[in-house]
Amino acid sequence: MEKIQRMSDPIAERIAECAIDQGYDTIFDRAKRMKPCPIGQEGSCCRMCHMGPCRLVGKNGENLRGICGADVDVVVARNFLRMVAAGAATHSDHARDLVFTLLSVARGETKDFQIRDKGKLLSVAMAMEIDHPVITELRGDSRVTEGDYDLMPWEIRNISDEQIMEIAEKVALKHLEQFGQQEGELVYLKRAPKGTYERWVKHNLRPRGVDREIAEALHRTTMGVDQDVDSLMDHTLRVGLVDGWGGCLVASDISDILFGTPKPIRSKGNLAVLKKDEVNVIIHGHEPALAQVIVDIHTDPELIAYARSKGANGINLAGMCCTANEILTRRGIGSAGSFLEQELAIMTGIVDAMVVDVQCVQPSIIPAAKRFHTKVVTTSPKGHLTEAVHIEFDEHNAKETAIKILKLAIDNFANRTGKGCPIDELQAKAAVVGFSREYFSYMQGGLFRKSFRPLNDAIMAGRIRGTAGIAACHHPGTVGASIQRYLIEELVRNDFFVVVAGCAGHAAVQMGFATPETAYNYSGPGMREVCEAIGMPPVMHIGACVDTARVLMIRTLMATTGGLSPEMAGMPSIAFAPEWWSEKALAIGTYFVASGSTVIFGGESPVKGSKRVVDIMENKWQEKVGAAFFFEADPEKMLQKGIEWVDTRREQLKLVKYQPGRFRKERVLMDMAARRELDKVAKPHVGLGF
After folding, report:
1. Is residue 161 classed exposed, middle or buried when 0-12, 13-18 and 19+ CB atoms within 10 A define those classes?
2. How far is the first Cα of the chain from the last one, in angstroms, to the nearest whole number?
3. What pLDDT score was predicted for residue 542?
4. Whose CA is closest to 458, among 683, 252, 656?
5. Pairing relation of β-strands 265-269 and 429-433?
6. Dist. CA 21–CA 16, nearest whole Å
7. What is the pLDDT of residues 360-395, one digit of tens each?
8. Residue 393 in 3-state DSSP?
9. CA–CA dist 600, 468 (Å, integer)
10. pLDDT at 681
């Protein structure tokens, strides 16, 4: 096979080259062979009924119609809405499962989980206006400000465990109501800044209930129903808000309550986290519950003794994809890699079990595992793989399931074939990860005055040019994570504060950007000054894909802190998804835009077939929600468009004009002679006793 670069991470690339040499067929080879359909790629193919499929193409494609009479604008809008609805369904279903786990804990139906962050539970309960005497008292505190319900440790000291469980049950039940709610609005919408919320009210964009809006999206896009492009695109924004405020943010909050809110922790990432002399178990997928229990028990002395009895020196856990990010940012478990590396991990020949749940699990791991000894274990009733071992998980038997899985992996250790691509002498990249919104506000202001004021001040002064987020997938059609690397390097060099999540988080770790020291190598002078003062990396890994919702609250608190825009729209910020492929990414991008944050996606545009839909997303959405959705295939143009967007927002806010190098100062070690010269020109200190 032809040798071409597949991955920007050198270790992953080495394994990919080894796979080629040994004749393994990987996702990279399939991506090269399988050319995408150009008609479907731009959204101009309609499969909403079986009169077609209808391909709306031609020199005058905007005038062509399908068999039913639907024009290309309607077809493209329907296709895009359905993709966003699918993405919203995945994240909201993820959130629903976590809410059921919280309910089981509150009712004492499971002993394998607990509430690890009582403060987060109470802050969520306050935001939801839960009816409980403790919450009523806490909400009466004048300290509570718009969008900010963070509590001090001593404020929860006298709240009993019984009261905590009562509140947890009410929070869980209130969240469950949100899924089936038929009227009203999602309760989390009120957490947004007032100006953002008022836009949603003005344009009738508030979702009534999670399941209702997703189901209605399928109804609207059925042949013969909603055939007005503006109406379809409005509902796309509505479903986007479902994904952000009814799915991702809920999942992130409940995970924090159950498993702990992340705070900075040192770890490592890339395929070199695997260990040849230990039982290697990779936890892959997106749902964190079972993964957290596996982490809890994998160091149990009885299991370690059992592993040693089978010839292994211990049990080594590694994560992959977004489950990796869940246990990386909370527990420091090393990340083996992103979506693109699941086959490569198996091809090392030393993965004894790959445990998967839902989302982004490639069916190709089954034939890959067959060539070695790896056991693929499916755990979700929603996600089965033919020929995998199925050990089903629910919150009531979590520990029992985890033990069964680990013992299966231990028993499989002796079946290693000795084949595979060696990684013995390779080194994993160090990283500092786990920057939750709560920790970031503490990091800026300390325990007694947690605040986003330092970030706002740095932006207003021009030390930080703007904020940028990079998230979403790695695409097999590019050199994996290469565009993300380019954007990260250029953004921090241009004094952007960057947050990453999902597979972009893996890229930041593997490329060495997730350490404070990176500021010296890449950051512009303004960003470097901020990093040095706070001791933070220039790129902050905030978690899994669902944790992109942390940005909603970061931007909310930036708005309510003051000094910048009073709403999310208008802030000097930009978000990128340069290598996206998943419908989930489109849903995330849509909720960012609907909340007032402009996004730029890479690759070919799925709405290119309709000039009208493109105009709505790039221009008319700016009028409604203050943000735009762009697609740009060229990385350099993508970067330039993002920088120009931020600079324009700075100008509109009448902030100090950003000037590269304005804060550059040469540091000189001063001797006594130099100090005396300074004393000669120093002004006297009036009134200070000098």
Report:
1. exposed
2. 79
3. 96
4. 656
5. antiparallel
6. 9
7. 999 999 999 999 999 999 999 999 999 999 999 999
8. coil
9. 11
10. 42
Strand order in the sheet with 353-356: 389-390, 375-378, 353-356, 279-285, 315-320, 335-337, 265-269, 429-433
Secondary structure element (H or E) that encloses residue 672, with its range: helix 672-681
Under a CB-based contact definition with an 8 Å cutoff, are residues 121 and 127 in contact? no
Name the token pair of 274: 């695997």
Residue written as token pair 């000669």: 680
pLDDT digits (tens, 9 = 90+) for 318-331: 999 999 999 999 99
> Are 344 and 271 spatial neighbours (Cβ–Cβ below 8 Å)?
yes
Q: How far apart are CA 236 and CA 85, in angstroms?
A: 8
Q: Which residues contact 463 (CB under 8 A, 6 or more apart)?
A: 495, 526, 527, 529, 530, 663
Confidence band for 147, pLDDT divided at 50, 70 and 90: low
Cα–Cα separations (whole angstroms), residue 653 to 130, 240, 365, 480, 515: 37, 27, 50, 37, 32
- Whether a cis peptide bond, with omega within 30° of 0, leads into 10 is no
Q: How many CB atoms lie within 10 A of CB 676?
A: 9
Q: Is 573 strand, coil or helix?
A: strand
Question: Residue 293 burial by CB count (10 A; 0-12/13-18/19+): exposed, middle or buried?
Answer: buried
DSSP assignment, residue 463? S
Write the single-letter amino acid at 174.
Answer: K
Tokens of 449: 């005055």
Residue 269 CA to residue 509 CA, distance in Å, equals 6
Assess whether the previous peptide bond of 53 is cis (omega < 30° from 0): yes
Q: Which of 466, 545, 535 is nearest to 500 (CA)?
A: 545
- Report which secondary-structure segment, H or E, holds 506: helix 503-510
- Name the β-bridge partners of 432: 266
Indicate the SS3 state at residue 449.
coil
pLDDT band at 482 (very low <50, low <70, confident <90, very high): confident
Q: Residue 375 in 3-state DSSP?
A: strand
Q: Report the alpha-carbon distance of residue 189 to residue 326 in Å, rounded.
A: 25
Indicate the SS3 state at residue 558. helix
Q: SS3 of 153, please? A: helix
Structure confidence at residue 142 (pLDDT):
46
> Within 13 Å, how many C-alpha atoms sit on residue 1's CB side?
20
Farthest-apart Cα atoms in the chain, separation: 91
Which residue's entry shows tokens 């990340």? 335
User: From CA 627, how far away is CA 392, in angstroms rounded?
Assistant: 43
The CA distance from 198 to 644, in Å, is: 27
8-state DSSP, 340: G
